[in-house]
Amino acid sequence: MKARSFVVLLFLFGLAGCQSRPPQFEFGAYSEAERFYEKKEYGKAIVKYQEYLRENREGNMAVIAQYYMAKSHEELGQADEARSLYERIVKEHPALIWAEFSKSRLKEIDSRTAKR
Asked: How far apart, in whole angstroms, are the C-alpha atoms of residue 65 and residue 67?
């Protein structure tokens, strides 16, 4: 009986190890840029976002890459570069939520600039 209980226990532990995990998606340069951004390595993130945009100018995530590239410039104190990207997003994608986010960032840049 003990042997049977042991086998059942092993089986249950085996099943627990087979739990499904959420799939990991990889989007090349975009995924690399996200990892750099999360680690606050903004210069490296910008390079990878630029690489993604060269390869996927009209891709589904192009506007998101532009937005986070602008945020990366902002984090590096490069307000002019950030402003240019935010303004382009507002102009080229006015109906997307990223345009609203960009307008908010532009207001933040303006308020910081006004305080100087």
From this structure: 5
Mean pLDDT computed over every residue of the chain:
84
Tokens describing residue 6: 């042991």
Give the chain's domains with CATH numbers: 26-114 (1.25.40.10)
Q: How far lies 83's CA from each of 6, 20, 50, 90, in Å? A: 65, 43, 16, 11
Structure tokens at 36: 């750099």
Closest CA to 74 of 61, 89, 86, 64: 86
pTM reported for the whole predicted model: 0.76
Tell me the one-letter amino acid at 48.
K
Given a contact cutoff of 8 angstroms between Cβ atoms, the answer to whether 68 and 47 are in contact is no
CB distance 90 to 99 below 8 Å: yes
